[in-house]
């Protein structure tokens, strides 16, 4: 076959996961920063193209087609993404890594992802890139941040589960492909679907929320948001904390349990005496 079957992907990921956990903290953090930045680039690209299209539904669809560029960079250029690393439950269940090792990876990579997203958010706002289309991009950035901050804990949690089911399936499919073209095509559709449906990805939200915070602090951008009907007061510390906590927990369940645990049980688990 010109691709790895699901059982082979599961077996291969055990070794991949061991390598991720064995990384020195410094490299883990730097690769996490890169992944956060890559996802943020996908986010701003998606926003720009959506704002440039006058029909909202078409703009949302085209934007969803742009966003997979972020995960493409993460997987092919080399980086560490928290949501994808939720699959570390597989080598954990195989007893090839420890709970401590997994948590260490998650914490360091999560911090790196946040730094990367924050840096890109600051750069696109303070470079005035969001002034495109008569501050239309800034208004969209503020609208997105306010909407995410306004989500209830339960809604963001459930959307986080749905999101990371799709993200981890995208990662899984990319590991199944044996060539670059196959990896890109394979990861594209699940990521497009999650963005199109508006599910919650904690790493993408790190960028979206912080971009909203920075844009809110620029008078011209805040005015554009207010004119567009955005409730700027919704963008606050409590809303940001609630969204990141709930979406992160949902992402863990979606990736570690719905995909990692299920595929481990189906393809790797062996009963005692079997």
Keywords:
274 residues; mainly alpha; single chain; 12 helices; globular; 0% strand
Report on this structure:
- The chain has helices spanning 6-22, 25-51, 56-66, 68-77, 89-93, 99-126, 132-150, 153-176, 180-197, 202-216, 219-227, 237-267.
- 78% of the residues lie in helices and 0% in strands.
- The protein is built from twelve helices and no strands.
- It is globular, with a radius of gyration of 19 Å.
- With 274 residues, the chain is mainly α.
Structure annotation, total helices: 12
Helix-strand category: mainly alpha
Separation, N- and C-terminal Cα atoms? 28 Å
Helix content: over 70%
Major pleated sheet: none
> How would you state the average pLDDT, rounded?
96
Instruction: Quote the beta fraction.
Output: under 5%
Whole-angstrom Rg? 19 Å
Low-confidence segments:
none
- For the secondary structure, the number of strands is 0
General form: globular
Give the SSE layout.
Elements (H helix, E strand, L loop, with lengths): L5 H17 L2 H27 L4 H11 L1 H10 L11 H5 L5 H28 L5 H19 L2 H24 L3 H18 L4 H15 L2 H9 L9 H31 L7
Helix pairs in contact: 1-12, 2-3, 2-4, 2-6, 2-10, 3-9, 4-9, 6-10, 7-10, 7-11, 7-12, 8-9, 8-12, 10-12
How do you describe this structure in short?
The protein has helices spanning 6-22, 25-51, 56-66, 68-77, 89-93, 99-126, 132-150, 153-176, 180-197, 202-216, 219-227, 237-267.
